[in-house]
Each structure stands twice: as C-alpha cells, then as structure tokens.
Amino acid sequence: MEKLLSRFLEYVKIDTQSNPKSNTTPSTDKQWNLAKKLVTELHQIGMTEVTIDENAYIMASLPSNTKKEVPTIGFIAHFDTSPDFSGFNVRPKVIENYDGKDIVLNTTRNIVLSPDYFEDLRQYKGQTLITTDGTTLLGADDKAGVTEIITAMEYLIEHPEIEHGKIRIGFTPDEEIGRGAHKFDVSKFGAEWAYTMDGSQVGELEYENFNAAGATISIKGKSVHPGYAKNKMINAITLANTYLSLLPQNEVPEKTTGREGFFHVHHIEGTIENAQIELIIRDHDLEHFNARKELLNAIANKLNADFKEKVIGVEIKDQYRNMREKVEPVFHIVSIAEAAMQEVGITPIIKPIRGGTDGSQLSFMGLPCPNIFAGGHNFHGKYEYVPLESMQKAVEVIVKICELTARNRSKDE
Ligand SMILES: [Zn+2]
C-alpha cells in the first residue's frame, strides 16, 4: 500500500484541471505535465507498446503470459480534474486510523469534513483517509483510477505466476469536460472490452447510464407600449413561464432518484421580445426518453396553435446514450467484474448511473465499457476524499478481472 499511497500523492500534486472553453486537446497545457510523467512511469514498471499521441492520449500493453487464447481487455482512467473547483497547489492530508469523528481540513478557514453531513465517512473508521486541506479538490477523480491501474499492472508484472491475457491500459485527458472519449482511438486500443476505473464508493459497478439530450426553447414575443397592448403584445417572458408550467412538475432532478428520468431547466433569460430556455432531458429508458423529447415539441405546437403563429421554436440535441444496450449482449463482462469483486471480498453495488461516463461513449464507439469504483467520495470539491483501503481493493479487483478472464476462457475450452 506504500507504493499506492506515494504514487497517488505525487499525481494529485500536479495540477491537471481541464477547461471547457478551450478548443485544444488536451484543453489545458498543464495536463501534459502529468501525462509525460505517466509515460515515464509505464516504461519504468515494464509495460510495452507505451504510446502517447499528439492529444495526450496514453496507451500501453501488458503482454499475455499464457498460451491460451484469452480476449484482450482494457482498463481506462482520466488524468484531468474538474473545472468546477481549483486543482492548483493540492496539499493532500493523510489521516491514518480514522477515528470516525470530524476532520478539520483547514483550521484558519474552519473547514470541517464531518460524518454528520457526509455519512459515508462512518464506514471507513479505522482506515487511512486522504483528504484535501480545504482549499482545493483532491483529484481522486480520477487520479485514484490512474494510480490503481498502474499499481495493478506493476503487481501483475511482479507476479508472473498469475496467468492473464493481453491487457491494454488507456489514460485520457479532458473527461471532466465531456471529451475524454472523443479522440480515443478504439481500434488502436484493440481490446474486446474495457472498464473505466472512475466510480466512487468501493463495490460500485455500473453498466447503465442516462440517455441524454439538451434542448433550447426560443420564444418570440412582440413588444408594444403597455398602455396600448391589449390583444397586441406577446410577452416572451410570460410565455416562457407558461411553457415551463406545462412540463411535469415532479419530474425534476430534486424530486427523482434511481431510474426516474427528468427535465432540468438550467438557464433562462428573456425580454418582452425574446426569451430563451435551456434545459436537459435525462432518462435511462429509451422510450421514455423519446417521449420526453416529443413532449417538448407538443407543448410548443400547442402554444403556437393558440397564438396562430410560430412563437416557440424547439431545438433538441442528443448528448449521450445509455450504454446498457451495448453491454447487455456481452453481459459476461459485467459478470466477470462482479465475480472478481466477490473473490476479493467486496459486495458489488450495481446501480444505474444518474449521469454519463466516458464508458458510455466508448461503448457506442465499439468498446463495451462498464464503470468500476475508484474509491473516492465528494468529487469536484473541497470535501473530496478517498480511503487508501478502497484504492487497494480496486487494485485487487483489476488483478482479479485479468485472472478470471484467462480462467473463464480455459473453462470454455
Ligand atoms: Zn471521473
């Protein structure tokens, strides 16, 4: 665990925040700082076919050590951190043998990580926690994933008695701004399937995510002097309000959970003449998802008919899709991960993601890619932390998946 800890602490101290406003890849130059270090390290531990392309996508191989025909599998993590919170000058704190009480992250600013608010903390009593100093995020999302994959590969190299097929690993920039999979060369990666190590709590295993779309509702009004406006003025602001009132009022993020989908209005602006509503649609179920899109158009059609002119325009853009339809036909890839967790003493927590992952994009690019826990909590903010023991478990799960993939294959023969 020493190596795991020192590796992780080194990575989080390197600022790799991505930037959604940039058009380059990686979106920030500073991501190269960690990328180059990772390449050096992959060479050092003895990985082969280590490559980094002009966009900072890193790939490497661990050759098969068996004569059996074993499918090539992959593990993927991202090395950028969220633009939502500072990742500059991260000063991680290591708390050994956590006593289950409040953790003062920052005395001067009185920033406290408390189990009264973050209840998950309680399950880690007695473990080693890595936290922030209260001024930055930690970057366990997803440097924990990166650390775990490298450490697992090193373990397999040091333990040649564990039989495995060819393993590919991939590290990407810019996941946090939704572009991690965009320039990922699936054919160069050459794996039959892969796992992103980018989940949270120990045991998480995810192969379902939202279907996602974004919509812009444009409303055209008519400004007339308010004193002479009767039957003439169309107030775009009022109309925007009417439009929103016709959406199902309980199907919003703050009132839904599990597999329940929603409409989420996240931006609105307007004058009498023009108003614009921006919202997103999320639903695990494809039929319900499509029905939500239809509803957006149906409300517009109704209001346009009422006004006998086109006052409302709807533009919908698909964002990502539920990977389930790509994973279900190859469900053994989930079963192997589940069995691996059980073999290392973890109870798998299988639940639909209320969001998307790079794995969902990769699945539709031809690389089925469920998501596995990396161990961290409270991502994208100053309360982020990760238990070292969870990271250790993730390493064991990776090793076990490699082992089981080879073992399962030999059973088939
Ligand atoms: Zn992540």
UniProtKB/TrEMBL annotation:
It catalyses: Release of the N-terminal residue from a tripeptide. The active site is at residues 80, 175. The keyword Hydrolase applies. SUPFAM superfamilies: Bacterial exopeptidase dimerisation domain, Zn-dependent exopeptidases. Its cofactor is Zn(2+). It holds the Pfam family Peptidase_M20. It comes from the Bacteria. Its EC number is 3.4.11.4. InterPro entries: ArgE/DapE_CS, Bact_exopeptidase_dim_dom, Peptidase_M20, Peptidase_M20_dimer, Peptidase_M20B. It is an enzyme of class 3 (hydrolase). Residues 207-308 form the Peptidase M20 dimerisation domain. Keywords: Aminopeptidase, Cytoplasm, Hydrolase, Metal-binding, Metalloprotease, Protease, Zinc. GO terms for biological process: peptide catabolic process; proteolysis. It is found in: Cytoplasm. Zn(2+) 1 binds at residues 78, 141, 198. The keyword Metal-binding applies. Cleaves the N-terminal amino acid of tripeptides. This is Peptidase T. The gene is pepT.
